[in-house]
Every structure is written in structure tokens, then in C-alpha cells.
Design goal:
Blueprint: H1 11-23, H2 28-45, H3 47-51, H4 66-76
Length: 90
């Protein structure tokens, strides 16, 4: 059974909490509950386990990312030789 409680928040934090709750189609109470459950669950699993599945890779296309182009030129002379073929997603 859930219990009712009161918390004191900075007005800006309350505004932000209401905005996030609206975007997630939930209540501020449920949002706080989910955040606390998530925090305690990740602490129990350990730091590495909590990071699994949270990263995302960006896809770089030649000519669209200066860092990608510089690294490609430095490591492979700018061409996909020496067994290196970049994966190009369209």
C-alpha cells in the first residue's frame, strides 16, 4: 500500500518535474518513484551492469564529420585500404 508524503522542492525543480512528467504521460509522484527505483537498482547491479545498454554509437559518413575524416586520413591515408572498409549507412 502506498503512503502519502510531502516534499519541499525548489520552484524551478518542481516546474521541471511537472514538465518531464507531462512528457512521459505520468505524475510527478510516479516520476520520483521511477527515478528512485532506477537509482537503487543500478547501485545493486554495480556500475558496469548499469551502463550496459545505455550507450549509443553515432554513424559517421565520409565528408560529414571532420573528426572522422581526420582520423580516417591519419590512420588509413584517407582511403579504405589495408583491409579497412568503413561501414556506410544510408
Amino acid at each position: 500500500m502506498k503512503k502519502r508524503t510531502s516534499i519541499t522542492l525548489d520552484p524551478e525543480i518542481l516546474r521541471l518535474a511537472k514538465k518531464v512528467a507531462r512528457e512521459k504521460h505520468t505524475t510527478v509522484s510516479r516520476l520520483i518513484e521511477l527515478l528512485l527505483r532506477s537509482e537503487t537498482a543500478s547501485a545493486k547491479r554495480g556500475i558496469v551492469a548499469s551502463m550496459v545498454g545505455t550507450a549509443s554509437l553515432r554513424v559517421s559518413l565520409r565528408g560529414t564529420d571532420p573528426l572522422y575524416d581526420a582520423l580516417l586520413a591519419k590512420r588509413f591515408g584517407g582511403c579504405p585500404s589495408a583491409g579497412f572498409v568503413p561501414i556506410i549507412h544510408s
